[in-house]
Amino acid sequence: MRRVIIAGNWKMNKTISEALELVNGLKRELCDIEDIDIVVIPPFTALGEIADALTSSNIKLGAQDAHWEQKGAFTGEISPTMLKDIGVTYVVIGHSERRIYFGETNETVNKKVKSVLKTDLLPIMCIGERLEEREAGSTFDVIRDHIEGGLKGISEQDVLKVVIAYEPVWAIGTGKTATPAQAEEAHLYIRDLLKELYDESVAKNLRIQYGGSVKPENIKELINQEDIDGALVGGASLKTEEFVSIVKESAKKGV
Ligand code: PEP
User: Fold this and answer.
1) In a domain, 47, yes or no
2) How many domains does the chain have?
3) Which of 121, 193, 217, 253 is the most exposed place for a label (fewest CB within 10 A)?
4) What DSSP string describes 117-159?
């Protein structure tokens, strides 16, 4: 059975004191949830303090990106080794905002996913089509391209440590959510593709999150789709009440 995973991507938000306030609220409200994985993904500047605040907590720490090299002359970059050193468990790779604004490609995503795995961290690899691609009928082609490119050369043993986040770009931060049927259709396509690229066991066991304007009002229907194993949450993860409500609703699927 796949373990549900709800992750909150805080993007470029929260000073250290704001981040601590949010995480302390989450710790208070979510300390009893044991059956699903809960992850917070603050900006790099707050990782150290949040790691300390999460000592002995059921909430895991994630980072929003990592470079593919472990050290060297890469001004402004952060390596997987540094993230591991500070207490990170999950690393988001290939978020659409990084693909759109910072030139991330399937090739860089693939290098980063491999490097994160090599460091014994768990990648959350983001994929998904833009509005014009959906309207042109090429959603499945884009998904195939992102998955084949991002997972190239990754062994069956390693690929099971990857979480795929299917995030249609047109649904991110727009308030437009994919319908549960649209999301389920894409997740099913991803499982079929994993079966083709790997085997039945990978297709059955790899976790696939949905992301794109997930809120307390729509999580129930989304999480109850058979092939949706969790959510990558942006905007709603910045508010204690909203993220708590998303996690609690999702936990009903975990048991
Ligand atoms: C995201 O950042 O991955 C995301 C899905 O954002 P939002 O929930 O705000 O659409």
Assistant:
1) yes
2) 1
3) 217
4) HHTT-EEEEEE---HHHHHTT-HHHHHHHHHHHHTTT--HHHH
Domain containing residue 60: 5-250
Token pair, residue 209, equals 């999150």
In short, whether 214's Cβ falls inside 6 Å of ligand 1 is yes
* Ligand 1 and 62: CB distance under 6 A: no
Each residue's pLDDT tens digit, 82-118: 999 999 999 999 999 999 999 999 999 999 999 999 9
Q: Whose CA is nearest to atom 8 of ligand 1?
A: 234
- The enclosing domain of 69 has a CATH number of 3.20.20.70
Instruction: Please report the pLDDT score of residue 255 as a whole number.
Output: 61
Tens digit of each residue's pLDDT (9 = 90 or more) over 212-233: 999 999 999 999 999 999 999 9
CA dist 220 and 233 (Å) reads 14
Mutate which of 39, 176, 214 for ligand 1 pocket (most atoms within 8 A of beta carbon) = 214
- Nearest to residue 44, comparing CAs of 9, 69, 75, 71? 9
Catalytic residue chosen out of the listed positions 167, 184, 242, 249: 167
Residue 255 lies in a domain: no
Give, as one character, the DSSP assignment of residue 60: E
In a domain, 210, yes or no: yes
In this structure, is residue 115 part of a structural domain? yes
167 included as an active-site residue = yes
Degrees to nearest 5, angle at CA 113 with 236 and 201: 90
Q: Which among 13, 39, 233, 239 is the best mutation to test ligand 1's pocket, defined by most ligand atoms within 8 Å of the CB? A: 233
